[in-house]
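Box 3.1. Reading complex inputs
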Amino acid sequence: MALTPLEMAAPDVTQLPDQEKEAEIAGRSPLQIALARLRSDKIAMVCSAIVLIFVLIAIFAPLIAKLFGVEVRAGDPSSDTDIFNFPVIGPPDHGFTWKAPLGLAPNTGDDNLAEWLYGARTSLGIATVSTAVSTLIGITIGLVAGFSRGWLDRVISFIIDTFLALPLLLIALALAPIITLRFADQPTTLKYAQVIALTSVLIFFGWMQLARLIRGEVLSLREREFVQAARVMGVPTRLILFKELLPNMMAPIIVSISLGLPFFVTAEAGFSYLGIGIVGVPSWGQTVNKAVEYFDTYPLYLYAPVVGIFLLVVALNLLGDAIRDAFDPKTRR
Amino acid sequence: MTESEVAPASSAAGQAPESYESAEHQSAAPPRFDRHAEAILSVTDLKKYFPVKSSGLVRRTIGHVQAVDGVSFEVRKGSALGLVGESGCGKSTTGRLITRLYDPTAGSMMFQGKDLATLSHKAMTPMRKEVQMIFQDPYSSLNPRHTVGTIVGTPLRVHNVVPDKQVLGRVRELLEVVGLNPEHYNRYPNEFSGGQRQRIGIARALALQPKLLVADEPVSALDVSIQAQVVNLLRDVQQEFNIAFLFIAHDLAVVRHFCPEIAVMYLGKIVEIGDRESVYDHAHHPYTQALLSASPDVKQAAIGGRRERIRLEGDVPSPINPPSGCRFRTRCWLAQDICAKQEPPLLQIGKSHKVACHFASELNQTPPRPVTTGLLGVDDQGNHDAGSTPTTLSTNPGYDDEWYDLKSKSFVKA
């Protein structure tokens, strides 16, 4: 049963070598190398696709809503709901209809898909702004505290400790009625005031963890010999902080961002669910709040925002993990 | 790291023609010491005291660590001064003072007509091109997040030595000089071995074409076989670019191989300094003799003879509260009353040989009376002698043409 020589496939060795050697030697920045590694990571690619879809939904929410022919706050309780306050078209009592792909809300008759699309916009918007600002504040304060030993470091550390001691939920609870009272006579201003207040509260309580982390990292890195080497070479302090030290802190920063984004998404939804977040603008948290009591009769109403939050948070977490691995030259996969 | 990635790197290192033997043939004998050569760095009475703070809310200074306490020496153009001593004796601090990683407490460091000790950090920047440093630990002296190209290119970019477009070419040249494959431009330090990393560190230090290189234990973190390669590489670049070295080490064999001039430090002070032959073959300070007796000697091992080992008792005293008089007296087997009362001056006892000891002599030829009494104006017990006046001693960091002859106990001229 032996193979005859003719049956064997010719070895295809000839194509392999030389190609890599020919490649031009050119400077590749660490960022390019990290991106190349990220591109070969399947999980990262799937997650970034999911995140990208959510981002696109958030940006083009009005267009997509128009495409489906739905609108926010277009419901009319008298014509769109029956005597039990349930919608007259679509789920749960009637079949699927293109008029309202996710159905209508009980009581109001508002369109769920439109609310969901605009809710994604609110969620991502608030989460992104909060994460970006609190990360910037955290990095700056952490770098300054870590590099300026002495009294400045002690003052900043004390402020960080003070902020960590403040209860986030309590302050948000206290702030909500104050804002509502202040702008009670201006409904349009109230909408934005609530969004800004929520974002500010999230930023206010979001920067300390990262600042503390960065300070610790700087303290451990500043005595390393490569920092001293940079000083011997005459590299200015500003460049030492941002070119020598900061790249070594990419991992904690990216972890902090990747944990911060989903945290802020859930925090926004949670606050809105508790009724201390935003009221005038559509948001997933509010929908969850309203949908909980209908879960046994109208589960789709609750599933839509929950699946949105879940998918976004999981994708962000996994993506953060993958980015951290891509930036760490010591990981091999 | 996988095997395949190691292979090209190690073959590149293999191209470098290095072993102790072959290099010894190449560059013949180690460079001779010339005491009349021009000094490129002249350090006088350099001091560095680190404050010791109390704990608690109000942190008062309760003492000082006298890490470096008045050292003077010269580094000659294209030559190398070896600085040896045990851990904590202040040799690394001295190196860091010269590169101004620390600000000196007192003293001067003259370099090309400028005093590095008093320059502001801004005024120091142009001088950084001339004075560079090689670090001890190749695993922490390279930024793990930068590629080799960035690491070696940083000094070029910071000082605008070459236009941005030529940085890549220059870096590749430098990598070739230190025996690395220029194609490793894009790799990260963690892909290299310790010896290769140290070569990267050397390439970075060479990038600015310095006149003085402070090498802070450049080989002590490496394997012995790699040590030889790196030391010979340093020798090669020294000869090629005419760089002066301040070579800090605790390995006497490496220093002997590399440095024509050697200074021995103990507890923040130089106890003996001189050319290689004076220090290694005619050591006059008991501490130097103890150090030398502790270093293994291949020749003697081959013959089978065994030198007498000098065992020093006890620990190095605390630099916060050093002993009075001679700092070595607590561990010295020759110590007498005078050693506690009078600090021995760093006295020139030969053409290019200085020693700080009241009983300076070669091993087992200890003089019965202190040799310094006449100069300091004291009697044999170190008490002030009304009958004699102290002689003003030279404070020249280099070597004078007139020195104190121990045999005749008088000043003689060259």
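In summary: Chain B touches chain A through 40 residues (CB under 8 Å).
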